[in-house]
Amino acid sequence: MTVIKPKRTIFLRVFWVFAFLVLAITLFFAFMVIPMQKTALRQIMYAQAETVSKSIVQATSDAIISKDYGFIVEHNVEVLKNNAGIYYLIVSPKQGDKIFVNQKNWHLLAELDSNTAALQGEKISFVITDREQYKNVYHFVYPIRFSSIDWGWLHIGFSTADYDKYIHDMYYKIIYIISASLVMILVVGFFFARWISDPVSTISQLATQVAAGDLTVRSTIARNDEIGVLSDSFNKMVDSLMLSNQALEHYNQELEREVGTRTRELADLNADLDKRIKEEVAKSKTQEALLIHQSRSAAMGEMIGAIAHQWRQPLNALGLVQQNLQLRFKLGKLDESFMVSSMEKSDRLIHKMSTTIDDFRNFFKPNKHIEPFNAYHVIQTTAELLDAQLKRHNIVLTINCPDDLMINGLEGEFSQVILNLINNAKDILLERRPLRPAIDIGVNKTSDQTTRIVVKDNAGGIPEAIFDKIYDPYFTTKDQGKGTGIGLYMSKIIIENNMMGSLQAFNDADGANFVIELQDRPIVKTKPLI
Amino acid sequence: MNFTKKHSLLACGILFMCQLGFAQADVVADNNSRVNMGFYIKSITEQASISDIEISLNFWVKDALAVEAEKAGLYISSTGAFLYESMREMRDDYDKGKLDIIVAPPLLISRYFKRDEITDGFSGMLEGRQPDNLLLVVRSDKNINAIEDLRGKRIAMLEGDELSDIYLDTLFLRSFNKSYKKLNPSIQQQAKATRIVLDLYFDKADVGLVYFNSYQVMTELNPDVKNKIKILDSFEVRSKNYSYINKSYPLADEIRRIALSFYKSPRGKQILDIYKTPELDFLKVEELDLVDSLDREHARLLMHAIK
Ligand SMILES: Nc1ncnc2c1ncn2[C@@H]1O[C@H](COP(=O)(O)OP(=O)(O)O)[C@@H](O)[C@H]1O
Ligand SMILES: [Mg+2]
């Protein structure tokens, strides 16, 4: 079993929370108390100063009225003697000398200094200031007034030593309290946090052991609180875990057996499946081959139709040449020149037919080399194969293509696609018979790398209902014997698989538009198709 | 108000002291190891407050003196402090053999006691062993340069101080053959000598009679006092109060010795502080001669004075 390092996170958290709370509360109260105490002290000082002033004025009032300065001095010297907290005292009548008394001596002042004189007003005033050798004096000025006659002022310089000492004591006390609470935090917090966290970490440790798979552990914590309950529950949990573990082990063995059987069955099945997949693949390959073959035959069939059309005119012409030769021969007018011209004519016609055949043969010649070819030339040649049929039905075919545009790919396959598209357009034009049937082939570069070929007719477009199906193999709307449903399927495969392009259709106001988009990049041929 | 309060306190104190004193004195009247002191109270109230006197006298006599005596190997079994408002009463108690030590102003002692009834005692003294002379002080700005200039001037003097009275009177009788009371309508009696100095300073009086110590204290408190007040004449006297010991008291030498070394112990020092004297000094009976001769001269001059 691995040794589990006990985590102290809860301990630390509890400890810090406790510490923070105690410290925060202590500091809060400490710093609440300071300003309160300060104002209280100031009020006390004020009250004390007022009391002292009042008593002095009361005691010396007779003397003041009778200008008995001896008494005033005597009394104030006495006051100072009995109050070590008073630094000095000034009796300042409005007119005449002022009497200054301090702890050591007394003397007369002709004038008060301006700062002190400024404090003499109608109301009590005070200031904390430094005066001569006295630092931090609470200088209190009390107006002396007898039956609404302003006689003068009594200045008393109180020592703030007591006040400062009190404040200092308070600071020390606060520091003491904070230190005490720090100690308390450390000690009580430690034990408190440990009291909270110890059982938790014990249980967590036990749980970790349980998690590691040791189900023999039991919690020994016996407490009369939630933690005790936790401990009990933990033990119960481990008990039941142990039971379920045994049950599980049992199930496991069962399962393993079951799995063994199943695995064997599955292996058998797998082997069978493999065989079947191979068969299916073989089957589908055959199907594909069939499809290709059919596509080829269809194309061939269409080609033959086209050849038949191409040949009709020269064959007729050849027949006429033959009839003329026969007629001349019967009339005995078959001279050499006629013979020669007839032969030339025949030769020309035969040559034409032979060229047609060559053209078709070229068309079907397996062309397995990917190489750049001239787009216009290929489209032109392909269109020429259908020239006769198109002319017969007054279908006008226009090719709009730059002379020098080159396409990279298999020339034969590409022309097969073009042938398909023209054928489809021709078919639909014959079916729908618009007033001026036309097929437009437009080729242009839409960007540096993209070549776009659009074959467009004006037969009204592809019905919405079949839009999704036109590329399906064997899908056709044409009468039996006429359509095979392979043309668009093959075209899509050629363009998208063999030429890495795209073939899409859309309808515009006139009719269907078949759009081929080819990228100018080397084509990696995945598999030979036709 | 203040006055009556002081008196009632004084009365209480005296009553208390006397009862205490009598009770103890009766029981141990014949005991040789007792110490009974008689104080003429009017002569000490100026230096200390009545409550201080009460406490300190008890302390001094009952505790400190006894304790100090015990240190010197003398067992004091009974102590008593008696306060007197009149010398007559003190004299009566002395005659009854109740008092071992008397404390009073020298003039009064010389008047009430014969030289052979008392023996050498002790007195307080000023810092630096200076005598606490009685001073005749005048305001400097009043152009007073001789006794002759004192006529009609405002006088301030200590209430109940007979020495001041006969001293000033003697001076007047010498110069004018008339008592000062007849020549000067304004005579202020003050309870405190310091107050006399202040009255002169603030021009409430022109002439004053104060003991040297009070004058010195005031000049220390305000050096300007020296500028405004000058000393015209003085009469030599050691202290306001003299203490003498009953001639028939057997522990006279021991008690005197203890009193003279009072300043050495903290307890003794405490008591001396209350009476504002740094230590007690040996006092001969002959030292009464000076006041005695003044008293005689005064009496003689008075007889020939213009009535
Ligand atoms: N230019 C077009 N306009 C309208 N419908 C078209 C066009 N081209 C093809 N179609 C529809 O798509 C179907 C499938 O075409 P295709 O795969 O070439 O097979 P087939 O031509 O043999 O029918 C056609 O039967 C026709 O209904
Ligand atoms: Mg087709």
From TrEMBL, chain A:
<dbReference type="Pfam" id="PF00672">
    <property type="entry name" value="HAMP"/>
</dbReference>
<dbReference type="InterPro" id="IPR005467">
    <property type="entry name" value="His_kinase_dom"/>
</dbReference>
<keyword id="KW-0902">Two-component regulatory system</keyword>
<dbReference type="InterPro" id="IPR003660">
    <property type="entry name" value="HAMP_dom"/>
</dbReference>
<keyword id="KW-0067">ATP-binding</keyword>
<keyword id="KW-1003">Cell membrane</keyword>
<keyword id="KW-1133">Transmembrane helix</keyword>
<dbReference type="InterPro" id="IPR036097">
    <property type="entry name" value="HisK_dim/P_sf"/>
</dbReference>
<keyword id="KW-0812">Transmembrane</keyword>
<keyword id="KW-0597">Phosphoprotein</keyword>
<feature type="coiled-coil region">
    <location>
        <begin position="238"/>
        <end position="272"/>
    </location>
</feature>
<dbReference type="InterPro" id="IPR003594">
    <property type="entry name" value="HATPase_dom"/>
</dbReference>
<feature type="transmembrane region" description="Helical">
    <location>
        <begin position="174"/>
        <end position="196"/>
    </location>
</feature>
<dbReference type="InterPro" id="IPR036890">
    <property type="entry name" value="HATPase_C_sf"/>
</dbReference>
<feature type="domain" description="Histidine kinase">
    <location>
        <begin position="306"/>
        <end position="522"/>
    </location>
</feature>
<keyword id="KW-0175">Coiled coil</keyword>
<keyword id="KW-0547">Nucleotide-binding</keyword>
<protein>
    <recommendedName>
        <fullName>histidine kinase</fullName>
        <ecNumber>2.7.13.3</ecNumber>
    </recommendedName>
</protein>
<feature type="domain" description="HAMP">
    <location>
        <begin position="194"/>
        <end position="246"/>
    </location>
</feature>
<feature type="transmembrane region" description="Helical">
    <location>
        <begin position="14"/>
        <end position="34"/>
    </location>
</feature>
<dbReference type="InterPro" id="IPR004358">
    <property type="entry name" value="Sig_transdc_His_kin-like_C"/>
</dbReference>
<keyword id="KW-0808">Transferase</keyword>
<keyword id="KW-0472">Membrane</keyword>
<dbReference type="InterPro" id="IPR050398">
    <property type="entry name" value="HssS/ArlS-like"/>
</dbReference>
<keyword id="KW-0418">Kinase</keyword>
<dbReference type="Pfam" id="PF02518">
    <property type="entry name" value="HATPase_c"/>
</dbReference>
